[in-house]
Amino acid sequence: MLIMQRIKSFLNLKFLISLILLLGLFSLWTYKGIFETGIHVDLARDLHELSNLWIHRIVWLGPMTSANFPTSPVYYYLLFPGLLLSNGNALSLIFSQALFALTALGVFTYFQLKRSFTSALLIILIIGLSPWWINAAGHPWNGYMYVSWVFLALTSLWFKGPGFITALLFGISIAIEPAAILALPILFYGWLTNANRKKNLFHIFLGLLLPWTPIFIFEIITQGFLTRHWLAYPSAAGISFSPKITNIYPVLNIIGVSPVQATVILITSFLLATKKARYWLVFACLPLIFLIAVTPLRQYYLLGLICLLVFTVAVILSSKTIGKIILLIFIVFYIQTIKLPPASFTGRSIPTLSNTVDAFIQKSNLDRTKKYAVVSIRDQQNSTPQADDYRFFLRTKGIEALNIDQYPEADILLLFIEVPSFKWQNFEEWHMQRFGNRKFLSNYKINNTEIVIYGR
């Protein structure tokens, strides 16, 4: 009885240490995300689509890819629960992003602790402290979010989870960002080693396709609009055939290793690996052939593949003493390179814009029974006048901010000007023209932003 109590106490201690470590990493990701995230065009787009969900509209399409075809809206629906729980706080996007990353590492830790406590700690740290993972875990964007789902899929496959669950996790990652396909060869290996291939093949296809259901429904409703549009304006996403060994250097740069270091680590991993792990390593490296053959891809396209490579190498190295030393060296290096931003908000941060809108609503006593058209001026070139971000902050405060196609129905036009000394009196552009004839009512200056109100 005493021995069992000591074993149970030891297991609880390992769990507690792992939990503290994971929560510490979660705090690091969220802190950097909160104080580093600025509202750029992509985030403004996401806020707009989430605000459509907020006012009970169905969002059928996800972010548009450079291949001129949209992703699945599953990305927005995954972020929406956090927005609801926070009562419309846009910072929830950062917490949700970090929570997905925490869940991914947490699930892996749960299973890995049953095999090796030391190995679990090393893998948590080598992943959680990697610069590429910190960016992906703390900064809201579909080009980052998919990485956590790739890691969850790899965890399910490594620990022999149900084929459907593994495929579904891969399917979600691809639906968020199609570049996750670069990590898919490992799923093919999982299918090859499955005893019931025929049944498992059905489960794999079902899991991969299920997250695209909204797109399929949209295509049925619109009689193939997306397909017809893509066929009319096809795009190769900037990828062309141009074989060079240096095309894989971006992968090494993101991981933080030189070509020599990468070669040594891969050879060492192959020699130390079990039979299963060697096959994983081979299949994980297969997409590198594609990368060598084409022009260098954008960094976020590579994150899913990097997740696969680092996952595989970390699992292998953490099982041997020499491998643990290698991982420990990288962990120390990563810790030294971490830089915490100051706890202050500058530029177009989420709190800054939110506070501006809050102050404006209170100061102007904005009529909540009216309908509003919204235009923003962020620079002298007026590059993004659609005001997606302001529309979000207005809607979550109970103001009926209309979509652009509804501007003719609006009662009031709001012009948010972030350019100092901007001559707005004679300013005209097509979003404002959709509102129609207008007359000046009033203007306010709040947090370096001038807000002009027009009526009909």
Summarize the structure.
The protein has 456 residues and is of the alpha/beta class. Helices cover 61% and strands 7% of the residues.
What percent strand? 5-15%
Gyration radius, in Å: 25 Å
Sequence of strands across the biggest β-sheet: 2-1-3-5-4
Broad shape? globular
Number of DSSP strand runs: 5
Largest sheet: 5 strands, mixed
Mean pLDDT: 93
SS content category: alpha/beta
Question: What is the count of distinct domains?
Answer: 2
What does this structure look like?
This protein is an alpha/beta fold. The protein folds into two domains: about 20-335, no CATH class; about 350-455. About 60% of the residues lie in helices and about 5% in strands. The protein contains 20 helices and five strands. It has helices at about 1-35, 40-55, 75-85, 90-110, 115-130, 130-140, 140-160, 165-175, 185-190, 195-210, 215-220, 225-230, 250-255, 260-270, 275-295, 300-315, 320-335, 350-365, 390-395, 430-435, and strands at about 370-375, 400, 410-415, 440-445, 450-455. It has a five-stranded mixed β-sheet. Helix 13 crosses helix 16 (about 300-315). The model has no long low-confidence stretch (mean pLDDT about 95).
List the topology elements:
Elements: H1 2-36, H2 41-54, H3 74-85, H4 92-112, H5 117-128, H6 131-138, H7 142-158, H8 163-176, H9 185-192, H10 197-209, H11 213-221, H12 225-232, H13 249-255, H14 259-272, H15 275-293, H16 299-317, H17 321-337, H18 350-364, E1 371-377, H19 388-395, E2 400-401, E3 412-417, H20 430-435, E4 439-446, E5 449-455
Parallel strand pairs: 1-2, 1-3
Antiparallel strand pairs: 3-5, 4-5
